[in-house]
Specification:
The longest helix has 14 residues. Helix 5 crosses helix 6. Helix content is 23%, strand content 30%. With 258 residues, it is of the alpha/beta class. The radius of gyration is 22 Å and the shape is globular. The protein has a single domain, classed as 3-Layer(aba) Sandwich (Rossmann fold).
Length: 258
């Protein structure tokens, strides 16, 4: 068994086929660029999966072998099978890590785990973004300075309809004046979830070394500590119970002497 973290990078892989500009920037897909960067280290084994593969490339065998799943989607959220979403959700609750990037905020799996609309404001005007690192001691920001600056990006603005994060890691400021909670963590069941905002497909954001460092750090942070399938078993008592002179009816109501 490998000691390396097993990572699956999932992508719709639609924009790269339909848009000439995106294809020129990411000719083999956003997932390929992310996977290549992560695989350059010596602690991760990385493979990819895309929407149009059977079971979206996320069959039980793949997910059972995945420590951390990275999710990028934008224009085909509704095409993701509900059965696959439930399968991924079950794995996260059992301990698998999940990293959701950029427009993945509106994916079925993220909305399912958050329990909210996950809506936000947006604008595409190639404006500057500054991601302020407000948790410099956090493992996800290891090696990251006071902020990351992106010269051109799509704006996401508040209100971001998400549950209050367990930890807020990055806050973005945009040239147009908006701010946004761009790096957020949650615990869901036994699994860790990280949402990271940067990543619009028409900008070379996944070629940015600092952005990829954050994602690599997040993979290490989200790696399972335990993997425990959720169950609701009936169990016998650990200690011996004292005799009771009572009985319970079918509805659970106490009957007899109390």
């Amino acid at each position: 068994m490998s000691d390396r973290i097993q990572v699956t990078v999932w992508n719709e892989f639609r924009h790269e086929k339909d848009s000439k500009a995106v294809k020129e920037l990411y000719p083999n897909g956003i997932h390929a660029v992310i996977a290549e960067s992560l695989a350059a280290g010596d602690d991760m084994a990385v493979w990819t999966a895309t929407l149009d593969e059977p079971e979206h490339g996320l069959g039980e065998k793949v997910l059972d072998s995945t420590d951390v799943l990275i999710w990028w989607g934008q224009i085909a959220h509704d095409e993701v099978s509900d059965d696959v979403v439930l399968r991924v959700r079950k794995r996260v609750l059992s301990g698998m890590g999940l990293i959701v990037l950029h427009s993945g905020h509106f994916s079925k799996i993220f909305k399912s785990l958050m329990g909210t609309n996950c809506s936000l404001k947006w604008r595409e005007a190639a404006e500057k973004e500054r991601l302020w690192n407000i948790q410099p001691s956090h493992p996800i920001t290891d090696g990251i300075g006071e902020y990351i600056e992106l010269p051109n990006t799509e704006m996401y603005g508040e209100r971001f309809d998400i549950p209050t994060p367990d930890e807020l890691i990055f806050i973005s400021w945009f040239e147009g004046g908006e701010v946004f909670r761009s790096g957020c963590t949650w615990q869901r069941g036994h699994g860790r979830v990280f949402y990271f905002r940067p990543g619009h497909e028409t900008y070379p954001i996944f070629y940015n070394e600092q952005i990829m460092r954050v994602i690599a750090n997040a993979v290490r942070w989200a790696c399972p500590r335990v993997v425990l399938e959720d169950k609701c078993p009936q169990v016998k008592p650990i200690e011996e119970l004292s005799p009771k002179k009572v009985s319970f009816g079918k509805a659970g109501r106490l009957q007899g002497n109390q």
